[in-house]
Amino acid sequence: MNFYVTTPIYYVNDQPHIGHAYTTVAADVLARYHRMRGRDVYFQTGTDEHGQKVQSAAEERGLDPKGHADMMVENFKTLWTKLDISHDAFIRTTDADHTKVVRELLQRLWDEKQIVKRTYSGWYCTPDERFWMEKDLVEGCCPDCGREVEKIEEDNYFFLMSEYQDRLTEHIQKNPGYILPETRRNEVLGFLKNQPLGDLCISRPKTRLAWGVTLPFDEDFVTYVWFDALLNYYSGAQYLAPAEFKKTNGDLAPWPATHHLIGKDILTTHAVYWSTMLMALEIPLPENIFAHGWWTVEGRKMSKSLGNVVEPAGVAEKYGVDAFRYFLLREVPFGLDGDFSEDALVNRINTELANDLGNLQSRVLKMVAKYCKSEVPEPEETEEEMKALAEGILDALEGHLEVLQFQRALDEIWKLVSFVNKYIDTNAPWALAKDPAKAGRLRTVLYSSTEALRFLALYLHPFMPGSTVKLWRTLGQGEDLREISLDKEARWGRLKPGTGLLDEGPLFPRIDTGKKERERAKFEPKRATEKAIGEMRQKLSGKEGKDMEEKAADNLISIDGLTKVEIKTGKVLKAEAVEGSNKLIRLEVDTGEPRQIVAGIGNAYRPEDLEGKTIVVVTNLKPAKLMGIESQGMLLAATGPDGEPSVLMPDREVPPGSKIK
Ligand code: ME8
Question: CA angle 392-397-401, nearest 5°?
Fold first, then answer.
C-alpha cells in the first residue's frame, strides 16, 4: 500500500518557527508509523522559493533571490535533522526538474484553453500578492491585511477555475474525508455555496515581479507563486520519489498523496485552487487535506515584533527533541489551536514523561536488576488483561492515526503506562521477593512489566524516535527499532526470558521547576543567519552594492520635503479591535490633543498590549476612513522581515505631543 504524506513547502523569507516544526513533526509521526506497518511510505517536505515575499526578503538583505534561498534553505534542513525528521525527499521550487514540470503543465492548460489571456482591471495588494475586486475592499484597503491596495490595469493570464465549482462541491460532498477536520470541510462547502467561484489570475508581469517561473507561452510573465508551489506535491512525486513506487503502484505513484498536512490559513489555496488545478489537469485528487490549528505563545499571537517567536531548535536543545515532539502532538487535538508556553512544556515533561513513563522504566529495570540479576525472568503465567490491553493498542492507533488524532493515539498508549504503574503498585514485587513461596508470581510480575515496556518502545517510536531507540536498547533488543514491523512485534510474549537488560539512566530527566534561576529562554532567531547574511553582503559589496547606491540617489528628497510632515509622540489611551476586520485596531491617542487612529497592526499586536504605550504618529495627514471609522493620522511602524509591522516606540519616557525632528 502506498502512503504519501506532505507538509507545506515553507517560504525561505525567514527562520523556521514552531508552526513549521508542528506540521513537519506530525507528518514525520505518520511516516514513521506507516513504515512500521510495512507500507510503502513517501514523505516529502521542502521550500517555496519564488514570489514577492522571498524576493523582498532577499532585497532587504541585499542578496540575489537564489543566493538568499540557498542560504535560508539550510535553516530548514538543519532543523529537520535536529528534530529527527525522516523525510524521504526535500523539494525546492527552484529545482530545475520542478520548474520543468510547472512549465509543462502550464503549457498543457494553455493548449487546452483552460488558461486564457484577459485585460484585467483590479486592486492589487502587493504584500499579499493578491488581486481584489472593488466590492471586496474594506474602505479602500485590502480586506485581509488592511494595507493600501493599488489600482492595476494590465494583461494577465487566468485559469478558468470558475468552471469547476460544481465538480469541486460534489467531490467534497461525496468524500467526507477529503477535507478535515469537519469544521474546515463545512467552511469550504459554505464558501463554495455562498459565492460564485472566480477565475484565478495565474500570472504576474515581469515588470512587477521577476522572481518566478517564466510562462512557457509568454516570456514577459512569471507564474503566480501558488500555482508553482502547489505543483510541488505532484512534481516531487514524479522526480524525487524512488522508482520502486512506480513498479508496484502504477505510473503516477506515489501520487496521489494520502495526506496533505497544512495550517488553517492556507486551506483555500489547497482545497480550492489545488483541487481545481488537478481537475483541469486530469490528475487524480489527493485523498485528504488536513488543516491544523495555529499556535499562540503564552496566550499571544506569535510575531517577530512581539519578540515571542518560538524557535524550535532552541526549545529542542533546552528540553530535548523528543519532549518537544511529544508536547506538540499531546498538548492539543490536531485541528484545534494551541498555546505554547515553557510552563506547559515543563509540566508535561515532569508529569507524563519523567514521572509516568520514565519512572516506570527505571523502577522495572532496577527491580529486574535486584531480583533477577538484570535478566528477563521466565513468567509462570500470562497476564491476560495486560496482554489484551497491550495488543489492542495497535488497532486503536490505526483508527486514530487514520484521522490524524495524535492526541488520542497517545492517550491510548498512556493507558498501558498507567495500567503497568498501577499493576506494580498492587503486586508489590518488593513484598513478593521476601516470600520464597511467591517466587513464581514475582517472575510473572517482572516479566509482564518488562514486556509492557517493550510494547511502549514500539508504539511510542513514531512520536519519540530517539528515546525509544534507547529504551529498546536497554531492553536488550538487538534489532534496529526503525526497521521493525509493528505487526510482527506487537505480540505478547516476544520478549525472551533470559534477555539481559541494561540501565542507561533516566529516559527523561525531571526539569527542576523550583530553581529560581530557570532562564526563560527567549528562543531568539539564530544569530548564525544574520552572520551568514553579513558575509554574503560583503561578497556582493562590489558591483551590486554600487548599483544600489546609485538607485538610492534617485530617490533622495530635500529637507523641505521632510519639514512638511508633522510627526509627534502619542500616548495610547485606549485600543480596541475593529469589529469585522482581522487586522484593524482603533486607537485613542494623546498627541498633545486627543485623536483617533485606525491601524492595520492586529496581526502583530493585541489591543490591550498597546494601551499605555508611547508611539510615533504623523499628525498632519488628511483624515481617512477605514471600515467607516475615521483615522486622524498614521502611526509609524517598520515592516519586519516576516512582513508584520513593528510599531516604533521611543526608548525612554517622553511626554505625549513631543515633536520628532
Ligand atoms: O504558507 N501555528 O509557507 P509559510 C501553526 N509557502 N502553524 C503556523 C503558524 C502558527 N503560529 N504560523 C504559520 C506558506 N504556520 C506557503 C505554503 S504549500 C504549497 C505553500 C503554518 O512558510 C502555516 O499555517 O508561510 C503554514 O501551513 C505553514 O506554517 C507554512 O507557512
Answer: 165
Please tell me if the CB atom of residue 72 comes closer than 6 angstroms to any atom of ligand 1. Answer: no
pTM of the model: 0.79
270 CA from centroid of ligand 1 (Å)? 12
Q: Which residues pair with 11 in a beta bridge?
A: 48
Mutation test of ligand 1: which of 12, 24, 53, 262 has the most ligand atoms closer than 8 Å to its C-beta? 262
Bridging pattern class, strands 179-180 and 289-292: parallel
Other beta carbons within 10 Å of 585: 24
Which domains are delineated in the chain? 2-292 (3.40.50.620), 345-489 (1.10.730.10), 524-556 (no CATH), 562-647 (2.40.50.140)
Residue 44's Cβ-count burial label (10 Å; 0-12, 13-18, 19+) is buried
The minimum-distance atom of ligand 1 relative to the CA of 11 is 22
Report whether residue 8 contacts ligand 1, using a CB cutoff of 6 Å: yes
- Among protein residues, the one with the nearest Cα to ligand 1's atom 7 is 19
Residues 361-414 pLDDT 10s: 999 999 999 999 999 999 999 999 999 999 999 999 999 999 999 999 999 999
Mode of pairing for the β-strands spanning 259-263 and 338-340? unpaired
Q: Probe ligand 1: pick from 12, 54, 265, 302, max atoms within 8 Å of CB? A: 265
